[in-house]
Design brief:
By secondary structure, the protein is mainly alpha-helical. It has one domain: P1 Nuclease (Orthogonal Bundle). Strand 1 and strand 2 form a beta hairpin. Helix 1 packs across helix 6, helix 5 packs antiparallel against helix 6 and helix 8 crosses helix 13. It is globular. It binds 2-acetamido-2-deoxy-beta-D-glucopyranose (4 copies). The site of one 2-acetamido-2-deoxy-beta-D-glucopyranose (NAG) has 4 residues, from loops. The site of one 2-acetamido-2-deoxy-beta-D-glucopyranose has 2 residues, from helix 9.
Length: 290
Amino acid sequence: MKLGQNVIALSALLLPGALAWGTTNLVKDDTTAFFQRILQNDTEHYLAGVATWADSIRYTKWGRFSKNFHFIDAKDTPPTYCGVDFERDCKEDGCVVSSIQNYTSQLLDTKLWPSRRNQAAKFVIHFVGDIHQPLHVENVAYGGNGIHVKWESSELNLHHVWDTSIAEKMLGGIHRKPYVAGFAWAANLTYQIKSGKYEAASKFWNDGLSFNDPIQTAMGWANESNAIVCTHVLPEGPEAIIGQELAGDYYEKAAPVIELQVAKAGYRLAAWLDLIADKASGTAESVGEL
Ligand SMILES: *[C@@H]1O[C@H](CO)[C@@H](O)[C@H](O)[C@H]1NC(C)=O
Ligand SMILES: *[C@@H]1O[C@H](CO)[C@@H](O)[C@H](O)[C@H]1NC(C)=O
Ligand SMILES: *[C@@H]1O[C@H](CO)[C@@H](O)[C@H](O)[C@H]1NC(C)=O
Ligand SMILES: *[C@@H]1O[C@H](CO)[C@@H](O)[C@H](O)[C@H]1NC(C)=O
């Protein structure tokens, strides 16, 4: 959307990076091998290194076709009514929900050139992150890009606050390199999922996941993100938030929500990539061909 249209701020690496590192920690060994092969990178950076690729191409001439794939514009009226509807809200040329399906199926299509499957992998990894961001599942003011707010006294738009500023502040400001901060954050979240505060809850995070129905699965994720728009993003509506300072009380309420969304996204992406790798290994030549 508007911010970052020409350049991706370094800090835009933080959320996608943390998510990718979290996933790296959670996938099965066979899945690692499969995606290292598809992405042609046999280091531990194979996911984190491509997590923002989709953002880096969306405003280029070549990549323009993908600009609408990062979101779905839920035409609801927060805070009184939240809700996302595939028929109503997914644009004719695609949205984040249809794109997760589209690129999952391309990843598994052994007739496609390896370069196409490589791109499909990079899109899936990025879009599972985007769909967990509340303002990527909201129509109001272009997903909050058109709402000006204050953040530690400087002026920002609401979309940027949710994509970047809240996570940055949680991790102690912008002093650390985002790639490194994302790595440390993911290690913490992985610990919380395996044996910490998310251990019990995470057992239910993949309820409703159906590999045979990517649209329904992704709509479940979208619905959950969109509900946050009513509870935490615009709890008093779009007019009331204009010009407000959000780095105080608003931030305190938003931070745990962002953390939970990043944890869920990493966990769900790991499960999704495991299913893709399982399915691909059923067709023996698919890996061998690359
Ligand atoms: C793997 O990815 C990392 C991170 O993007 C990059 O620095 C490294 O050069 C890549 N390695 C190969 C073999 O492509
Ligand atoms: C599916 O992906 C292809 C290749 O990137 C793209 O050209 C096409 O527009 C996508 N279709 C939909 C409905 O998103
Ligand atoms: C994880 O982060 C929390 C704060 O969110 C902190 O209290 C905790 O000590 C960290 N745990 C580890 C293992 O780093
Ligand atoms: C959508 O989210 C709301 C609020 O979290 C929940 O009550 C509802 O059951 C969800 N609907 C679907 C179809 O997932």
